[in-house]
Amino acid sequence: MRIFKWLNAGILVFCCGCDKPLPTLDGIDLARWQQDKNACNNQRVSMREAMDLEKEKLLALDQMQIVKLLGRPDQNELYSRNQKFFYYFMEPAPSCRDAVDSSAQKLVIRFNAMGLAKEVSVE
Q1: Rounded to two decimals, what is the model's pTM?
Q2: Residue 110 belongs to a domain with what CATH number?
Q3: What gap in Å lies between CA 51 and CA 6, rounded to an integer?
Q4: 20 closest CA partner among 57, 49, 47, 74
Q5: Number of independent structural domains in the chain
Q6: Would you say residue 98 lies in a domain?
Q7: What pairs with residue 62 in β-bridges?
Q8: What are the distances in angstroms from CA 53 to CA 26, 31, 85, 121, 122?
Q9: In the chain, what is the straight-line distance between the N-terminal and C-terminal CA atoms, in Å?
Q10: What's the pLDDT tens digit per position in 3-46?
């Protein structure tokens, strides 16, 4: 009986302790990215091409890993079947003071019902 308790505890530690490491996104200054909320300071515009090349590295990360990497999303939406979308503006959002275009480009991350990034695109 004691052996099973230790075995269960060992399995629990193994399962919870093995977290996928966060990827490095080449050409993207994550500190500047996180500080540029809604892209109002035009810091993310210069990282648009790099994000196009590196966005595939975000696939299969969970929501908390995305938030650790890119910061809190500028917008998020909950859809049917527990799908969630995170939006990060690449150009100044319509809510910015100096925004000119209401159709600003943004990084869109779609999460499945399990909370894993299933689709990443720039729209």
Answers
A1: 0.82
A2: 3.30.1450
A3: 45
A4: 57
A5: 1
A6: yes
A7: 116
A8: 9, 19, 20, 11, 11
A9: 56
A10: 555 555 555 555 555 566 899 999 999 999 999 999 999 999 99
